[in-house]
Amino acid sequence: MSEKxxxxxxxxxxxxxxxTPLEKxxxxxxxxxxxxxxxxxxxxxxxxxxxxxxTIVSELHDYYGGWQGLAKKAPLNxxxxxxxxKSALTFLRKTPWAREKVEQLxxxxxxxxxRGQRNKPRSPVPPKD
Length: 129
Known about the structure:
Elements: H1 6-11, H2 33-43, H3 53-63, H4 67-73, H5 77-80, H6 85-94, H7 96-118
């Protein structure tokens, strides 16, 4: 009578890697190359990828010489009435149309800076004697 009962076979795991009901399933280590490739492919044409809104506001503030200059280029109340970086960020995060306007101004400004560097006259090369 070496016959095994069906209950005994059901209680034994089929192989060593089988889990008991109380064990949590182990997640496989994610492949770091695959998400990076997908992320870079989706963000390849996004010039704002990786640039925070705080960086955008701070750079525009510096480039246009303060809040008054920035308010002239982007006439938003967050730049006109009692402006601070914190209040501007709060407003821009809650207002998609204003954020879009500021992001477009930032991109325009970056293109202008690049054009200015390309068109900058180079110092003349001294003549050879």
